Amino acid sequence: MNPIIQSVTNEIIERSHTTRSAYLKHVDTYTKKKPQRVGMGCANLAHGFAACDAEDKADLTADSKPNIAIVTSYNDMLSAHQPYKDYPDLIKAAIHEAGGVAQVACGVPAMCDGITQGQAGMELSLFSRDLIAMTTAIGMSHNMFDGGLYLGVCDKIVPGLLIGALSFGHLPAIFVPAGPMPSGISNKEKAQARQRYALGEIGREELLAAEAASYHSAGTCTFYGTANTNQMMMEMLGLHLPCSSFVNPNTPLRDELTKEAARQILKFTDLGNDYRPLAYVVDEKAIVNAVIGLLATGGSTNHTMHLVAIARAAGINLNWDDFDRLSKVIPLLAKVYPNGSADVNHFHAAGGMGVIISQLLNNGLMHEDTIAVANRRGMASYCQEPKLRDDKLVWEAAPAEPLDLSVISTVSKPFAESGGLHVMKGNLGRGVSKLSALDPEHLIVEAPAVVFDDQEDFLAAFRRGELEKDFVAVIRFQGPRANGMPELHKLTPPMGVLQDKGFKVALVTDGRMSGASGKVPSVIHLCPECEVGGPLAKVHNGDIISLNLQTGDINVLMNDEEFNARVPAPNTAHNHHMGMGREMFGHFRLGASSAETGASNLFIVD
């Protein structure tokens, strides 16, 4: 094992000792070695199976068969979640045949950042994660279940499901993906269409045609944003079946994997001899593996918040310094858009997660000895991939070497020697930056600040031609407490246009960017956020800002005494607290923690 990885892991274990021990002690009190429903009152149980058929009622009345919860994020508007429509029937049939019962415990909300990007609804996006966690807990609180199958794909849905499931950590859990849509037009063509629209070279009709040719069928969007980073993360945590993340929906293999997940969960309940409760699957080593996967694949910056929140739900104290130290020793092994031209289908065809995990394990760059949900415990099982042979699901060795070196590299010849994320520090606070999609000439920017309190004001200035110059865009009051921390991906096309014209441009914000962003240098998630008096609120137009993504430095170039004497500016943004449901999320904004501590308002560990 790489000594830095081992050191970081040991430090996480040590600093988490009190909270992790308390969490596991609490979880262990719910282990029964018999169905959870045993001991319920007759009226309670009768309510719980009233809608079941006679056979399931008989099974649930007895005390020998496990009952598995299905928690689904199905809706038929979101392409990534539409395939889940038929999953409950597939799962119920497979579990019934294998000797159990399954019920849909609840549905959770699932919103799409791609639809709400730049709109008022985006200000509910981050908070939907915690709402999904709470909804999951409500569904599981009926105490009818001995395990859970969690159906989710996209940005906040998977982290929310996992946080909620961890509050029922005494139960085994398997996450069931839906897979990416087949490839449409290239992501490069799509990005070019967006930039041409920003320049006024094409109209809305041409832009919509390009977007529709990219987002064209059921399944996850094919770029490597937060949704597909979620799928990678579930494999690195050992919560998916091996190499199952990127199998396309509505295919025979996808259906067999769904049925196999259903059969698999029955093996891990506390009624059998291979009890694998979620609380013990998601341990410190698994969390470190998830961070390693994020760095090795150049994944979404949103997971610098989500992984922290997930870890805390398991009593584990993960912090940004852990990300930073690991980034120094984890090489970049994947080039998937926005970090390259390939999409996730190309990534999967080039060997996908099996190759990534093989490369990491064989070079001492991740922990093998976790529990996971494959047939054999440990991450070595994730060097296998599923195949259909004579209509039967079998597991075969995944390629040990990449099948396309332009998409996946080896540890010996990586795309970059260090991972794709840096923690940024300086007199403007602490934030994060994604390097994996940047050209080397954009890693250092020093330019005057142009300050905005609303992304719409920036876009208006761009349309007026006021930004044809070198600058650092400072977008303030975009943190969790200010307006729910919406993604600012709408700024990427105009800033990309200016960068392509040869201007030195960068973005500095206490907000966040889309997992699809990366072309323009940025420092995001700055803490403390402006709403609580963070130093970014002291920046004036014309102040010189220096960001060096190689060294991790972010500063306003000014005498410390002068800068510290400034009074933080008030929030002058338009009203972001009313309309489109935002008025109902005031308590989420008021209670939100910082981005560095997960941007959560859940008090997960006492």
Q: What are its keywords?
A:
606 residues; Glucose Oxidase, domain 1; 2 domains; alpha/beta; 8-stranded mixed sheet; 23 helices; 4-stranded parallel sheet
In words, what does this structure look like?
- This protein is of the alpha/beta class.
- It has 2 domains: 361 residues, no CATH class; 176 residues, Glucose Oxidase, domain 1.
- 36% of the residues lie in helices and 13% in strands.
- The chain has 23 helices and 14 strands.
- Strands 7-8-12-11-10-9-13-14 form an 8-stranded mixed sheet.
- Strand 9, helix 19 and strand 10 form a beta-alpha-beta unit.
- Helix 7 packs parallel to helix 8 and helix 8 packs parallel to helix 15.
- The longest helix has 16 residues.
- It is globular, with a radius of gyration of 24 Å.
- The model has no long low-confidence stretch (mean pLDDT 93).
How large is the count of helical segments? 23
Distance between the amino and carboxyl termini: 33 Å
Estimated helix fraction: 25-40%
Contiguous low-pLDDT stretches (5 residues minimum) are none
Total separate domains: 2
| Total beta strand runs | 14
Mean pLDDT: 93
- Largest sheet features: 8 strands, mixed
Secondary-structure map with pairings?
Blueprint: H1 3-15, H2 17-28, H3 42-49, H4 54-61, E1 67-72, H5 87-98, E2 101-107, H6 113-116, H7 125-140, E3 147-151, H8 157-166, E4 173-176, H9 187-198, H10 204-214, H11 226-236, H12 252-267, H13 278-281, H14 284-297, H15 303-313, H16 320-327, H17 344-349, H18 352-362, E5 384-389, E6 392-397, E7 421-426, E8 429-434, E9 444-452, H19 455-463, E10 471-475, H20 480-483, H21 492-500, E11 505-509, E12 522-527, E13 544-548, E14 553-556, H22 560-565, H23 586-591
Parallel strand pairs: 1-2, 1-3, 3-4, 9-10, 10-11, 11-12
Antiparallel strand pairs: 5-6, 7-8, 8-12, 9-13, 13-14
Helix pairs in contact: 5-12, 7-8, 8-15, 9-10, 9-21, 11-14
